[in-house]
Amino acid sequence: MSKFKKKNKVTENIPTSALPDIIFMLLFFFMTTTVLRENEMLVEQKIPEATQLQKLEKKTLISYLYVGKPKNTALYGTEPRIQANDVLINTSDIALWVNQEKDKRSETEREMLTISLKADREVKMGPISDIQFELREVDARRVLYASVGRVQN
Amino acid sequence: MASKRGRMSQEVNAGSMADIAFLLLIFWLVTTTIASDKGILNILPPKQDPNVPPPEIPLNERNIFNILVNANDQLLVEGEYLDNTDKLSDDIKAFILNFGAPNAEAMELFNSLPASLKAQSNRDSKSSDHPMQGGAVVSIKTNRGTSYETYLEVLDKVKRAYFEIYAERVGLTAEEYRALTGKTAAEKELQDRGKEGIPMAISIAEPDKIGGN
């Protein structure tokens, strides 16, 4: 019996003073590792909704083209423009841009290059089909119409 | 007085510090949207050689499901005006699975389908012959003035019809089928079994000049 009594005397407090520090470390880890957005948006982006979404596995194979009305309408006008990386380009520059993107990737990955077309829902089909025509010309035929999920009815 | 102060506890209560840090952490996790690469995948047709005219593939009118979207975002489906797209994917499904005049190969495909899909087949001689190569084609045609949102909505419905058929063939729900990545052999096998013999024949025509620039 005396043995049990001895055990009861052991203090049961776990030191929790280091807990905040651990949590803060977690927080800072998350804050530093999440990349918010690689480049500043120069065009408006209200991505349309769709239900039949597919997810692409390999992020390195994706290049982004943003299409929409320029935010700075005084400088760039109100017609939809194309943004690649962090500059606005014309439709005729797409071929050059695609070739640059292809050069960044290894030989085997080039043909699997997918263009993620992040187009604003206000954009008309005219500019979209011009982009698609240019993409066909340079043989970058995998296009992903970026869209956000919607609950299927 | 000095001795009294010395006796006071010098420790700051740090017990709630962890809670505050947790709140911050959770706030961060909830507010950051990690850019997701989700969307509708479309494979564009190969480049046309200007010297070689595009091959003329004779297709009967009954084998084409025509969807026209005009510059006012109004739909004309198989010659009929449509004011909403709710029924569209069911119509497309019925069109694909029609098996109006199947040849021997298509008949084999028809017999391999599960009973639930066979029941959806109307065997209507006025609709598509069979869903195999050279059979049912869904054609989407827009104007240059059509909004991208409407175009995507229509494309979404067409994809939905196909994915539902594929999923039903392998006994999954459409969501489960779309989530297949093809990374493992088992997933790839399921994917191929769903698609086999029923290619996604979606023809997207070059938009005409109306309503755009």
Automatic annotation (TrEMBL), chain A:
Keywords of the record: Cell membrane, Membrane, Protein transport, Transmembrane, Transmembrane helix, Transport
InterPro entries xref list: ExbD (IPR003400)
Domain of life: Bacteria
Membrane topology: Single-pass membrane protein; Single-pass type II membrane protein
Subcellular localization: Cell membrane
Entry annotated with the keyword Cell membrane: yes
Principal localisation: membrane
Keyword Membrane: yes
UniProt family annotation: Belongs to the ExbD/TolR family.
Protein name (record): ExbD/TolR family protein
Organism: Belliella kenyensis
From TrEMBL, chain B:
Compartmental location: Cell membrane
Keywords associated with the record: Cell membrane, Membrane, Protein transport, Transmembrane, Transmembrane helix, Transport
Keyword Chloroplast (UniProt): no
Topology with respect to the bilayer: Single-pass membrane protein; Single-pass type II membrane protein
Region span, Disordered: 190-213
Location, primary (coarse class): membrane
InterPro entries assigned: ExbD
Similarity-based family: Belongs to the ExbD/TolR family.
Name of this protein: ExbD/TolR family protein
Organism: Belliella kenyensis
